[in-house]
Amino acid sequence: MADWLMKNWDHHEQDRFIIPGPAVGSIIVDRYGSQFPDDASVTIVRSQGERQIVRFGAVADLVLKDGDELVLPGVPMACGPLMYVIDRLLGPRGCPWDKQQTSDSLIRYLLDESYETLEALVADDSDAFTEELGDVLLQVVFQGALVAGSSFQDIALKEAQKLVRRHPHVFSGESWGSAEEVGRQWDNLKATEPPHHKSATWVYPALVAAKRLTKQGFFPQSPVYQEILAILEVYFSKGEGKIEEILADAAWAVAAGGRIHHQDAEWALWKKVAEMAVENGVTS
Q1: CATH of domain 82-191
Q2: Which of 48, 42, 82 is nearest to 62 (CA)?
C-alpha cells in the first residue's frame, strides 16, 4: 500500500512515508489513524505536481487518483509516529517541561521505566510489559532527540550494524555450533572493538554505589551523615543479630521521609554519589 523512501542521511527530514494512489482516504485512516494526531500535517501531491498540505484528520475525506501521492509525516513502522510526536513536543509550540529536559535530567526516568518494565515481566503481566517497554522506547527516542549529532535513526542503525558485526555465523557464512561457542566468539569480537573513551562504572543503584565509594574512603563530610551514622551504631549495639533488620528499617524510614517531603530518596542519593565520584575522579 505504501513505499518507504530511501533515507537521505544528510537530511533526516527527507525520510517520508509515501502512499500512492489510487487509494481511499477512509482506508488509510483505518490503517494508520491511531498513529498520528489529527492535527499532523500531511502533504497531497497530485499527479500534475500540485502540492496541498492538509491535517491528518481530513484524510478520511480524500480520494487519491492514479498518480497522486499522500506523504505522511513519519514512517508508521520504525518509530515514525513516536519520532513525530517527540519532534512536536520539543518544537517551538511544544511542551515547556519536555523542552527543559536534558540527557542528564532524564536519567532517573530511564532507570525508573527500566525497573517498571522488569516488574511487569516478573509479574507475568503481558499488557503492562508491553506498555512499559513503550515507556523505555520513549526514553531511547527522547535521548536520541537531545544528544547533539545523534538521532534515533543513528542509534538504531549503529545497533543493527553492531548486531551484524557480532553475528558472522548468521550474516557472513561462519559456522558456530553451540550457544556457548557463540558466547565466546561474541566476547572475542567485542574485545576487538574500540573501547569507550570515558568510564563511569560507579553508576549503580544508589545504595550499591554509596557502599562502593565508602569502601574507597569517600563519604559525605556533613553533620547529617555523622549524626545518622552515630544513631545507627547505637541501634547496632543494642540489637545483636538484627543488623540487617535495623538497616532495612532505617532505609525504609529514609524513603518515607522523602515521600513526606515529595522527594525521591533513591534519586537524591544517586545524585550525591555521582557528584562525589566525578569530583574525586572515581571510575570504579
Answers
A1: 1.10.287.1080
A2: 42
Closest Cα to residue 35, out of 76, 91, 89, 83? 76
pLDDT at 137: 92
CA angle in degrees (0–180, nearest 5) for 152-157-160:
125
- pTM for the complete prediction? 0.59
Alpha carbons 109 and 113: distance in angstroms, whole number:
6
Q: Which DSSP symbol is given to 57?
A: G
Contacts 24+ apart (CB under 8 A), 74-81: 74/15, 74/16, 74/17, 74/36, 75/4, 75/15, 75/16, 75/17, 76/2, 76/17, 76/32, 76/35, 78/156, 79/137, 79/141, 79/152, 79/156, 80/17, 80/35, 81/35, 81/36
List the chain domain ranges.
Answer: 3-74, 82-191, 206-279
Q: Can you read off the three cell numbers belonging to residue 133? A: 517497554
What confidence score (pLDDT) does residue 168 get?
Answer: 82
